[in-house]
Amino acid sequence: MKTYTNVKDLGDLKAAVKEALEIKKNRYAYKHLGENKTLLMVFFNSSLRTRLSTQKAGMNLGMNTIVLDINQGAWKLETERGVIMDGDKTEHLLEAIPVMGCYCDIIGVRAFAQFENKQDDYEEKILNQFIKYSGKPVFSMEAATGHPLQAFADLITIEEYKKTERPKVVLTWAPHPKALPQAVPNSFADFMNEADVDFVITHPEGYELGSQFVRGAKIEYDQDKALAGADFVYAKNWAAYTDPNYGKILSKDRAWTISTEKMALTNNAYFMHCLPVRRNMIVTDEVIESPQSIVIPEAANREISAQTVIKRILENL
Amino acid sequence: MKTYTNVKDLGDLKAAVKEALEIKKNRYAYKHLGENKTLLMVFFNSSLRTRLSTQKAGMNLGMNTIVLDINQGAWKLETERGVIMDGDKTEHLLEAIPVMGCYCDIIGVRAFAQFENKQDDYEEKILNQFIKYSGKPVFSMEAATGHPLQAFADLITIEEYKKTERPKVVLTWAPHPKALPQAVPNSFADFMNEADVDFVITHPEGYELGSQFVRGAKIEYDQDKALAGADFVYAKNWAAYTDPNYGKILSKDRAWTISTEKMALTNNAYFMHCLPVRRNMIVTDEVIESPQSIVIPEAANREISAQTVIKRILENL
Amino acid sequence: MKTYTNVKDLGDLKAAVKEALEIKKNRYAYKHLGENKTLLMVFFNSSLRTRLSTQKAGMNLGMNTIVLDINQGAWKLETERGVIMDGDKTEHLLEAIPVMGCYCDIIGVRAFAQFENKQDDYEEKILNQFIKYSGKPVFSMEAATGHPLQAFADLITIEEYKKTERPKVVLTWAPHPKALPQAVPNSFADFMNEADVDFVITHPEGYELGSQFVRGAKIEYDQDKALAGADFVYAKNWAAYTDPNYGKILSKDRAWTISTEKMALTNNAYFMHCLPVRRNMIVTDEVIESPQSIVIPEAANREISAQTVIKRILENL
């Protein structure tokens, strides 16, 4: 593997999950792979899980790890070519990226959608410049349109908890006070569409996701109907994707909050969320604290998805 | 050891100091203990000594170390249950804490008193949530009411410098421009009351510390009398503890500043302070730069106290 | 080597470059040197290259590395003696420096010129306090008047790319929107004056550098004349050094920007810059993206210059 940005980079998905579960049993078995190798983690945005789990994954593999927070102790970066740089930005990405590539063997990048320009976001302008100019293998630690380490961890978690061969998995929109990118639901759909599950997406009208991610998935605008018989409820907020409302909040309707009543519609489903989660907006205290909530084991699998991806990149260096 | 928040967690105090002094002689002798173990250091507040010395202690023990500054590159955390999280706080401690626990073997936590609610501070609300919810051994890197790594380092230092079997140790309040927590004097009293020393506390009226820390210690409101014959002078500012003045500054009287004249009252005492110290408020330039000032060896022992604590936790994993 | 602040600390310069090129071929050959040794990197200012390359260099040598950003998660530091510290600065450098020295074996320091007081800057007040009070070997990661890791990397790069025994190297001033220190041009001159090159400096009148760095170098006020026949063009902005204009911007004349037309005057010269660079102020997009631009390999050599310096310090511990 040279790049990790979406489900296709994993190839055979069943094999990838199997490899992840093997790694989970013995996470220090591959320490030789990372000897004298350096992982650079570049953050343009805040992070808790990704910061810790990816660093841990690199260390499990014997790597040296370096964390770089752009905007904290580094220089502000220009991203446009042709600009006369007489403002507050000290360095251009076109220099900064290959420079970062000089001092490491693998680069992880976090660069959220900025909601200023849909085309820039959906062309993954920053992530793709890293892929093009860094000279090193690059993996996404959540970019503008996808969060494939999260979705891979989600799939591992579903594999661990499922009670039937082909569980019903429902991705449901839920309300939130701020406009959030579509990266998590995009990647979750990207993965579920390739996995052996019965996948349904539910959200208010106007919140349709990009067809490149939704593909053939069933869309059900009535949340209660969608939740009926679900084995896994995956809640997430996102801002509108479709024009002319890209990046806008169309609803904060707390009737979509996942509550005990909503969970009662399901087949005793497990509750999932990528975290961080706004309690009593996305989900009530009762549901997230219930035995059916598997948000913590789901988060714990972030270490495993990251380690599987980095291991494969190391094997291919 | 599973938790380290106060002197009792060390058990036999003489044995703990002896172990610390053994570690100091050969600090790389226990590197095998930390192999494939990860230390996570979580800071809700600023830190220099604790940041460096605890990281160094973990590395001495062969651990992987990860530093997380909440409020810098992570998410803002909600601490109250039941809140509808539609404000600026993105994540709840009730998720963040077990998530942090997923990616490490031991957690150090720094969370100062906030002086907003005495009960919250003195119940160690944040530290205790880490102990309760992280699923991993937790040690205090200075919490609301105690700084036991500092007090342990102080005791080690007194053991190294004392000239008599049972030295006189004076904890003296000193002026400071800002309201400071009682964590350091609390823990110092907590330790001195269990150590083989003649312990006296001096401060202006109104600055009484909590009785759970002071216990039977002698309180002398006349600083000059307290300093008479002292072998060690331990200066520190703190804000008022007793109601209704909790968290308030009652005095900035520089007559309490430790000066050459004050030190002349002692038995050629050593001067100690946990640092950071405000010069010419707490102590004059002359005293802190004098040969009797042992603030630097005291700070150096922070590495040793941290390593002793982490070693014991590792041995108990 | 105990201290690294200027070219003289390297001794025989040809031998140093030779050693660097050997290290570059096999950068993990000296991992035993750094075992159980800790590198502390202290930043008073922003950093990308230095942060990453020096950390990488320490790791290549098997060291534990700790990064400390003063002003981010540490305490604000007072630098003047005698101050009554009742303001916003919590700790004095006179305590903070020896404390930092307690927890490491080698210290790298970044502390830029502040342009408040020329004498303070040119006496290297902060760097020299680290040298005097830390008790540990100190190297400059760019201080007020010099950036010797950069200049050493520059010399290594010139050695790798030169086509003639004694190339013509031109240091040219270029425009920039903000007042920048003289550290980089000072050190570049310091190194070039000791290297086997034909060294010319060009800048507008009023931008003369300190004679301790310029020494016998040729100064040519006409940029076009200076560039004629150049093998290497080293562009850099700096603010005025000479009184009464110390720290001031005297010109933002973009006629000094390095463009294709300017490069056409040279002997097909390589373009160099220490980065970060303001595109279309210092240099046009065309020139910095041309095959003659060697800014990235130059940056990559920062790892090598740092590793050579740290290796020599380790060998001398």
Automatic annotation (TrEMBL), chains A, B, C:
The biological pathway it contributes to is: Amino-acid biosynthesis; L-arginine biosynthesis
Domain Aspartate/ornithine carbamoyltransferase Asp/Orn-binding as annotated: residue spans: 184-310
Q: Where does N(2)-succinyl-L-ornithine bind?
A: 142, 176, 236, 278
Keywords, A to Z, come to: Amino-acid biosynthesis, Arginine biosynthesis, Transferase
Residue ranges of the Aspartate/ornithine carbamoyltransferase carbamoyl-P binding domain?
9-160
Q: Does the keyword Transferase apply?
A: yes
Sequence positions that bind carbamoyl phosphate: 47-50, 75, 110, 147-150, 274-275, 302
Q: A Gene Ontology biological process annotation? A: citrulline biosynthetic process
Q: Name one Pfam family in it.
A: OTCace_N
Q: How does it assemble?
A: Homotrimer.
* Summary of the function given for this chain in its UniProt record: Catalyzes the transfer of the carbamoyl group from carbamoyl phosphate to the delta-amino group of N(2)-succinyl-L-ornithine to produce N(2)-succinyl-L-citrulline. Is essential for arginine biosynthesis.
Protein family: Belongs to the aspartate/ornithine carbamoyltransferase superfamily. SOTCase family.
Q: What is this protein called?
A: N-succinylornithine carbamoyltransferase
Gene label: argF'
